[in-house]
């Protein structure tokens, strides 16, 4: 008993071919969309590659770009087949390879679904890359005279301003790094010498943050220096002051930014997969309806269309039997050759 | 002598009507573009409205929005009229409406031109408005507890960060206003009291700037306090000073930003105006050609179309006379309805003569 059998006459077949042709064109545009989303994601990763330690994996955007291209090509091809299905002579040349085409489309669809799943899971490796990258960013903030790192200060400042964040987890991360270059420290001053002597690594650490951490919504002018010393500023309590600098850490800010981008892309890829499944079903109906014409010479005769020729269970056992036969066939050949070799 | 006289055959008239129908539909799209441009301009101005002292600059986008909507309506009607004009029978429906429609469209087109010219002439007014607006914003920067002004600090900080500018003309403008609120000043400290006493108005003036003036391009951490005292900071040489803060004034930066937007918008509006003028001319030719066909009586004959029936001077003269006569119609001498004794005596005699033969 075939799966989802439908009877077709000429009019219905023509309507089916036209509908599936339209759907294929939508699918081509969906392929273009997937390609452009992959490209966009790649560019966004590149933009902030400095905070990912130049180590970020471009696997996902590259995969999306590849999937987008393959989707476009297969769907354009499928559209051509649909267009030709209205003309029996043209369709005859496609008929032999149609079954293989449908099977390869199914495999490609499952790859697409896996890509969507990857989009949702990508967040985890990104988190680790960002933590490392931001730590290094803050460490090299002061090295504006070292080639290769001289733009780190500018990039980090612009990022903290744009994403409204400060430090890795919060603003206190800045207290652990020397972010003022030695070029601008007066080593003859007692205060500088005390600070440098106060820790093992000989670093000039202070409880201060760069200006890019400042929050414009604060009602008072920004307090960047001596942040933990309440008596240094009039009417200031650093425990309760929450509008002075950005409270969010940059790792969280960047993760949520990329996370929402990847969730959107993943959702769109799932929708594209569903569209692909629909066009495959449509093409299968066209294929089956054109191969079961009651009178092969008469294009106006009735026919039947289905998704699977037998039930799911029977098809599955058929496939299993075929695979076993293929495995046995190669064994018999080997045995036959050995016999021939001994005989001759 | 008619102005711009052109002779049309029947086929040419129909072609003209078709072309005008298409052009009118393109004009509807142009009207939507005009509406969109007005909306865009309004949003751009409203973003930084708080640093502009007068709101007259909003006239330009409002005119563009109104003209955009009017263009859609007028050209939609025009398209309908032109479609019907190909046929002389259908033209009769529209005959009375055509002349008012053309006059209306002429006024509308001149308003579009006025809107375009306003976009170009806005610069001087904008400069004055920005100067006063920024000066007030800097004065009220510290008033984050006063209702109505509490967001000025945030707006000004975001402006300086986004546009890479500091102060009105330069960063020294901040030295002349008290931008730190009294709430955060320790009035018992002698340093604070000295500063307050050092100037006539009792303001706490410092040679420091807010954090939003800091340049992201500087190689060293930002120096905001004691800017004019280069010995207060280690190795604060000329080059460090140049790169430390944003050099430009916000007035100049905002002026350039808005002028470039206005010029692009003005150019597009001018192009739309030219297009509308073209459509108006076409409709006028079609109207005059169809009217002449009706006057000649034969729908298949050739007819003349023109822009003005007589020369410009004669048309102006006759319109002027019409306006003069409109004013005269309420004067006593010419009104026949008013009772004047000499006229009524003459009228009574004929009526008596009429009655006598009836009685006998």
TrEMBL record, chain A:
GO terms for cellular component: plasma membrane. GO terms for biological process: cell adhesion; visual perception. It is a multi-pass membrane protein. SUPFAM superfamilies: Tetraspanin (SSF48652). Pfam families: Tetraspanin. Coiled coil: none annotated. The chain crosses the membrane at residues 20-41, 62-81, 101-121, 265-286. Belongs to the PRPH2/ROM1 family. This is Peripherin-2. It comes from Monopterus albus (Swamp eel).
TrEMBL record, chain B:
GO terms for biological process: visual perception. The keyword Transmembrane helix applies. It is a multi-pass membrane protein. It is found in: Membrane. Its main location: membrane. The chain crosses the membrane at residues 20-45, 57-78, 98-120, 265-286. GO terms for cellular component: plasma membrane. Keywords: Membrane, Transmembrane, Transmembrane helix. It holds the Pfam family Tetraspanin. Belongs to the PRPH2/ROM1 family. This is Peripherin 2-like b.
């Amino acid at each position: 008993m075939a799966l989802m059998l439908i009877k077709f006459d000429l009019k219905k077949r023509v309507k089916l071919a036209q509908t599936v042709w339209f759907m294929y064109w939508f699918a081509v545009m969906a392929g273009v969309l997937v390609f452009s989303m992959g490209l966009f994601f790649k560019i966004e990763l590149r933009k902030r590659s400095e905070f990912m330690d130049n180590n970020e994996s471009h696997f996902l955007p590259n995969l999306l770009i590849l999937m987008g291209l393959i989707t476009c090509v297969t769907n354009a091809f499928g559209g051509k087949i649909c267009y030709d299905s209205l003309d029996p002579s043209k369709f005859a040349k496609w008929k032999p390879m149609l079954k293989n085409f449908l099977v390869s489309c199914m495999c490609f669809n499952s790859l697409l679904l896996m890509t969507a799943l990857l989009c949702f899971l990508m967040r985890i490796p990104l988190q680790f890359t960002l933590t490392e990258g931001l730590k290094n960013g803050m460490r090299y903030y002061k090295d504006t005279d070292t080639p290769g790192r001289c733009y780190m200060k500018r990039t980090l400042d612009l990022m903290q301003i744009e994403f409204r964040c400060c430090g890795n987890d919060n603003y206190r991360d800045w207290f652990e790094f020397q972010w003022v270059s030695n070029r601008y420290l007066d080593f003859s001053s007692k205060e500088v010498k005390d600070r440098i002597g106060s820790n093992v690594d000989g670093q000039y650490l202070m409880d201060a943050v760069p200006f890019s951490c400042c929050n414009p919504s604060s009602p008072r002018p920004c307090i960047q220096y001596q942040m933990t010393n309440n008596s240094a500023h009039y009417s200031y309590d650093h425990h309760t002051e929450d509008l002075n600098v950005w409270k969010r850490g940059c790792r969280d800010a960047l993760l949520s930014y990329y996370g929402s981008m990847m969730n959107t892309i993943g959702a769109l890829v799932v929708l594209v997969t569903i569209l692909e499944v629909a066009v495959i079903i449509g093409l299968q109906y066209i294929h089956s309806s054109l191969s079961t014409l009651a009178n092969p010479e008469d294009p106006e005769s009735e026919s039947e269309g289905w998704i699977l020729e037998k039930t799911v269970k029977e098809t599955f056992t058929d496939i299993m039997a075929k695979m076993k036969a293929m495995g046995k066939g190669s064994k018999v050949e080997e045995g036959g050759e050995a016999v021939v070799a001994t005989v001759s | 002598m008619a102005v711009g006289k052109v002779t049309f055959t029947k086929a040419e008239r129909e072609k003209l009507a078709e072309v005008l129908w298409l052009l009118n539909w393109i004009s509807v799209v142009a009207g939507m573009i005009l509406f969109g441009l007005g909306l865009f301009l309004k949003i751009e101005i409203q973003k930084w409205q708080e640093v502009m002292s007068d709101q007259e600059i909003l006239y330009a986008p409002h005119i563009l929005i109104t003209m955009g909507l009017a263009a859609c309506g007028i050209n939609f009607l025009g398209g309908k009229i032109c479609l019907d004009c190909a046929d002389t029978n259908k033209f009769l429906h529209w005959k009375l409406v055509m002349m008012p429609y053309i006059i209306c469209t002429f006024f509308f087109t001149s308003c579009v031109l006025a809107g375009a010219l306003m976009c170009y002439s806005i610069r001087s007014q904008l400069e004055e408005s920005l100067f006063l607006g920024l000066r007030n914003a800097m004065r009220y920067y510290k008033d984050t507890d006063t209702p109505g002004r509490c967001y000025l600090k945030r707006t000004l900080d975001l402006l300086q960060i986004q546009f890479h500018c500091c102060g009105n003309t330069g960063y020294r403008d901040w030295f002349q206003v008290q931008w730190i609120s009294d709430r955060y000043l320790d009035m018992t400290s002698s340093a604070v009291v000295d500063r307050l006493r050092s100037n006539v108005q009792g303001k706490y003036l410092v040679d420091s700037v807010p954090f939003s003036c800091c340049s992201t391009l500087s190689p060293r951490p930002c120096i905001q306090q004691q800017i004019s005292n280069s010995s207060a900071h280690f190795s604060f040489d000329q080059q460090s000073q140049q790169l430390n803060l944003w050099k430009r004034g916000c007035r100049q930066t905002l002026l350039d930003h808005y002028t470039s937007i206005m010029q692009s918008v003005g150019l597009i509006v001018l192009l739309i105006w030219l297009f509308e003028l073209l459509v108006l001319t076409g409709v006028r030719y079609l109207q005059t050609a169809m009217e002449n066909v009706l006057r000649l009586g034969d729908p298949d004959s050739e007819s003349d179309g023109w822009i003005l029936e007589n020369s410009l001077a004669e048309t102006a003269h006759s319109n002027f006379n019409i306006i003069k006569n409109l004013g005269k119609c309420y004067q006593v001498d010419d009104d026949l309805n008013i009772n004047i004794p000499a006229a009524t005596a003459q009228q009574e005699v004929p009526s008596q003569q009429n009655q006598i033969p009836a009685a006998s």
